[in-house]
Design brief:
Blueprint: E1 2-6, H1 10-21, E2 25-29, H2 32-41, E3 43-47, E4 52-54, E5 58-60, E6 71-74, H3 81-88, E7 97-100, H4 107-112, E8 122-133, E9 136-149, H5 157-168, E10 172-174, H6 179-200, H7 204-209, H8 211-230, H9 237-249, H10 257-263, H11 274-284, H12 289-309
Helix pairs in contact: 6-8, 6-9, 6-10, 6-12, 8-11, 11-12
Catalytic activity: (R)-pantoate + NADP(+) = 2-dehydropantoate + NADPH + H(+)
GO cellular component, one term: cytoplasm
GO biological process, one term: pantothenate biosynthetic process
Length: about 300
């Protein structure tokens, strides 16, 4: 099987590295000095599950150079999906399968606006990892896991084949009864902590310590939950409470990746998180005042970050 991992950041670098380390045919799309280091010295992964260095079959910035992939794993940010999907359109074959692992609630929908539905799965992942320096991925915590499935939740042959490949590479994975519910459960958590983290610019324990901010965070989560339910996702109060059990268990100093992007002046997933909730609320006739406040306060910084990155 020919596997292409597009985006060798914390997510794509870890999972792509594991697949390559298992002896699978893995090509990688990366950029800049990170790409050069991978080409010259291989990809180094420092992990709580064991360190390794691997040389992919190919590392390039040009998708036209890679063999027609059977499986494409997207390790990009959710806001990059439209441009990357348009790029991938030129190289996918009849049976190529695309697996998105981004945070966000509508990545599948964004992909199928550009690519044929038959080529696209839905998915997400759990991991805390990042590029420590060019050519090196640091997996700092959390048992890495990929959750994925068909949009109709059928246990298709191709889904089971990918399950076997991930097993072979030692990557924990799960095909749930409802991939949509799993995506929204993670989205409920990540959207709740990311925007308010970017706005306050402090770790999650500092937000928890403030009665006012903690209530604001809960109110934000309630809005997200209501939007999901209005879209037909079977979210319940139990899921809301589970999110806050996770939030309350996070160690001191914990920040979300989108929060860090905002604080570092980088383009972030704000539009795909709080911005998405605001827009969906408008479509559905539901008020989202807390998410709108967070979004509108952060939007000028987001606009500046995007303009400066062009």
């Amino acid at each position: 099987m020919e596997i292409l991992v597009y985006g060798i950041g914390g997510v794509g670098g870890y999972f792509g590295g594991r697949l390559a380390n298992a002896g699978l045919n893995v090509s990688m799309i990366a950029r800049g000095e990170h790409l050069k280091q991978i080409q010259d010295h291989g990809l180094e992964v420092e992990s709580i599950k064991g360190d390794f260095r691997v040389k992919p079959k190919m590392a390039t910035s040009d998708v036209a150079e890679v063999p027609t992939p059977d499986l494409i794993i997207l390790g990009i940010k959710s806001w990059q999906i439209p441009s990357v999907a348009a790029e991938l359109k030129t190289i996918i074959g009849e049976n190529t399968v695309i697996l998105p692992l981004q945070n966000g609630a509508d990545n599948y929908e964004k992909l199928v606006e550009i690519l044929p539905k038959k080529n696209v799965l839905a998915g997400l992942c759990f991991i805390v990892s990042y590029v420590e320096k060019p050519g090196k991925i640091k997996h700092a915590s959390y048992e890495p896991k990929i959750v994925f499935g068909e949009a109709d939740n059928s246990k298709s042959d191709r889904v089971m084949q990918i399950h076997d490949i991930l097993d072979e590479a030692g990557i924990e994975n799960n095909i749930p009864d409802s991939i949509q519910l799993e995506i929204w459960k993670k989205f409920l958590f990540i959207c709740t902590v990311s925007g308010i983290g970017g706005l306050t610019r402090v770790p999650i324990d500092k937000i928890r310590d403030s009665e006012y901010l903690y209530k604001m965070m809960r109110d934000s989560a309630k809005e997200i939950n209501e939007i999901g339910k209005a879209k037909g996702i079977p979210l319940t109060e139990k899921h809301l409470e589970m999110v806050f059990e996770i939030i309350n268990s996070q160690p001191e100093g914990t920040t979300a990746s989108t929060q860090r992007d905002i604080m570092n002046g980088k383009p972030s997933e704000l539009e795909n998180f709080n911005g998405f909730i605001v827009r969906e609320g408008e479509k559905l006739g539901l008020k989202t005042p807390v998410n709108r406040f967070i979004y509108e306060c952060l939007k000028p910084m987001e606009t500046e970050a995007r303009n400066s990155s062009q």
